[in-house]
Amino acid sequence: MKTILVTGANGQLGRSLESSISTPEKNNFLFSDVDTLDICNKASVEAFVRTNNVGYIVNCAAYTAVDEAESNEMLCLRINTEAVRNLGEIASALGLKIIHISTDYVFDGTNSIPYTETDYTCPLSVYGRSKERGEIVLRSVCPDALIIRTSWLYSEYGNNFALTMLSLGKSCRELRVVSDQVGSPTYAADLACAILAILDSARSGVFLPGIYHYSGEGVCSRYDFARKIFRLAHLPTPVIPIETKDYPTRAVRPPYSVLNKKKIKQAYGLTIPHWEESLKEMIHKLNV
């Protein structure tokens, strides 16, 4: 059985994938991060892949510090674009299956209906452009790649909106949260299960390349998301709605980035949980 290499293992999706598998070693999973494999070094990656009999790559590695990317464009592009090219070229040359994770930030947010996979991309930030370029170079060097765009990822791990709100809710008298940014929160554990289902399908001989969208069901604003987090965590902290212009950031966020998930649900028979139900699960796991 070929090994499944998961890059970016210390990130929230990588950790969610590992925690979703009871016995990773028996399922031939190999989790790596920059300390064990630098995906920016193509020669090292190719040697690693050959040595470990890798047949599948799940690329969860990414530069995700959206605001910091505005002043670290070269590093952001190196990880989100050039390293992706390395993985794609190796996958193509050696006949590997590759699943790459991308983002809703490839869109500018001017839509009023959920974005489909064929909608025009027009990123507003360095981070978004780096991820868009990563998609483009991957598809050019490895046409059989499978790309999953996701949105508003959160989990029990790392740095994300949900954990930040929980922390601030315990220490602030009130919070001001933007109400004019609309999307769909995605629980990393749900996305991990979807990836595992795709891998199971691939192992059975069915792997359908292309771009797919995956996010939690339902739609909300950042303000709605924060209020629900506090309600489930029994935090009394008041949440005040504000507009994006009242909370300036270095990187511009798309005001609307809801993703249409019809394609991935039909292709792989997935049932996607509603974001509120998944948030309840995460809050329960944290025991807050």
Defining traits:
Rossmann fold, 9 helices, 16% strand, alpha/beta, two-stranded parallel ribbon, six-stranded parallel sheet, 288 residues
Structural features, described:
- The chain is of the alpha/beta class and 288 residues long.
- It has a domain of 199 residues: 3-Layer(aba) Sandwich (Rossmann fold).
- Helix content is 39%, strand content 16%.
- It is built from nine helices and twelve strands.
- Strands 2-1-3-4-5-10 form a six-stranded parallel β-sheet, sandwiched between helices.
- Helix 3 links the parallel strand 3 and strand 4.
- Helix 1 packs across helix 6, helix 3 packs parallel to helix 4 and helix 5 crosses helix 7.
- The protein is globular.
- The termini are far apart.
- The model has no long low-confidence stretch (mean pLDDT 95).
